[in-house]
User: Fold these one by one.
Assistant:
Number 1:
Amino acid sequence: MDDKAEASDGTAVASGRDETLDRRIGYRLRQAQSLLRARMDQTLREIGISVPQYATLELIRRALGVTNAQLARDAFITRQSMNTMLQSLQRRGLIERDAADDGGRQMPTRLTSDAEALLADAEERVVAIEAEMVAGMSAAQQTALLEGLDGLIAALRAPAD
Amino acid sequence: MDDKAEASDGTAVASGRDETLDRRIGYRLRQAQSLLRARMDQTLREIGISVPQYATLELIRRALGVTNAQLARDAFITRQSMNTMLQSLQRRGLIERDAADDGGRQMPTRLTSDAEALLADAEERVVAIEAEMVAGMSAAQQTALLEGLDGLIAALRAPAD
DNA sequence: CCAATGTCAGTTTAACTGATATTC
DNA sequence: CGAATATCAGTTAAACTGACATTG
């Protein structure tokens, strides 16, 4: 079946071939993430941080005293990109970095108390969005979704690892 | 909430609180999408297009003759951003835009035959990645995942719509 | 007049590659 | 020396806001 698509007025038309976009998991993944990101952007901007900044702060809180290079690996970006991010967070007084006590070259990163407060606020907002996002789903559905995403992550990681 | 985290060597440490990152759907969504995006980037670069360009071409193919403003809405970006994207695709000979036949201001977009060929190649690569990504999951699991993502999209769309 | 469209201009964010110095 | 780290510099991709003309 190759069907029609009337969009005389410019309205988007879902159409056509069977295995189009709409059936694809990757497409939906992008779409869901894009929508979530927009929501997060909006609420986080109110308290003065971006989504990547928030994500970085979360990573730092989780892995206390972690170094730039390790954070970069955790976030799947280059050392250089993470370095830029950390510098901007540092300039804003959200993190501190001292040369490692072992005299090495590493500079472990710590959240300041300002950051802890900000992060608490941010997390509350983000958790609220996430709650809203799954509100209509049963616990079983949520679990299935979580496991499905885990499966994707594991499969995508395997070859690159 | 001050639990231990020994990362003397810089190794990331999963740690701490119960409701940390790792339990959160949004976090996993970002992670899965980030990994998928990296894979797509890699394979699409080989044929000379980026992920956003690929996504735009798919949108155009799906909604034949659609206009800039409509594509922007479909992709959740501004008219101006989509315009830049279309201009670059046009410069590369992948799309054509003629003033609408109705004499209006709209300029419907069409794929060139070059683009059709390129898109076929791109899609094959992307579909292969997607297949690999869900290879380890049962059909039921895949369906559950798909429906879960649909649920997220619907919920996230509602308030902004 | 109003709303939507297309587009120009300038800006910002967040990534990238390349190169350099340091340190174990 | 080699490997990992931190960081400087320059670049790019892809989004953004603002402004303006056109068109129905």
Number 2:
Amino acid sequence: MHTIACGLEPETAGRVIQAVDILWPGSVHGPVTAFQDALAGASVVSVGRRAKLLLFHLEGAGGAPLVMAAHLKMTGRFFFPEGGPTADSHARVVFRLDNCRELVFHDMRKFGYVRLFTPGQLQEWDFYKNLGPEPLELDAAGFLDRFRNRRGSIKALLLNQSVIAGIGNIYADESLFRAGIRPDAQANQVSEARLKRLYTAVQDVLQEAIAACGSSIRDYRDARGDAGAFQNSFRVYGRKGLSCPVCGRALHGVKVAGRSSCFCPLCQRT
DNA sequence: AGATCTACCTGGTTGC
DNA sequence: TGCAACCAGGTAGATC
């Protein structure tokens, strides 16, 4: 997400959105006509991120600030199609810019969405309001406070956006492996020492992923058509049955918190 | 209230 | 070969 926001900003900042074509109304949350009307003539100020939300900070045609939030879920992406208008059947929303380029919101599985807010409305949005802290802005003490004495599996806590924001299935599995904690360990049974290792592991995994320009699954490409590289560094995610990079034993796959989870039964403990 | 389960979607993969 | 069943994953909404 961090990588995506960084890639989009230079391509869009300062540009005016002349018109918006909505090819699949379900991808626009909130009133569709108001979305189109408010964006026509709006200019892009900057592109940021909070948790797994992309935030396009805009200035409406009348000068009022607006924020377009975009959630990509699993298959959403933003890109500029080569050679004019796209005939891609998975294009959901097209933003026609004043430089004759078209920014496409593409989402095969229709899970993602775009939604328009005033800054005040964004702050009042339940989902936004309830987001936990950004992991890279959290110190060890704050992390421990949020993970100590909690019921449920440690992985469910890592994935819970109101506990800590922005961690998905990939980075949860990778962090737990590095910390030596099984994904199905009950959070309140994990020692203080292991929780500290988990804090460090989360920091390391996220920083390494950002340095590698993110993780590209299957044919994912960013706005410039480039793939990330962190998927080449996965130690457990998606490697069920393959050997543990540390001890060589076959990695196990289990369902935890409704999510497929990969771990090493020897290196990871409760 | 907090934890857990399921629906939402579609394309790729697996199994018969 | 053909086709059905299953899988992936973030969140909302329901249920426990």
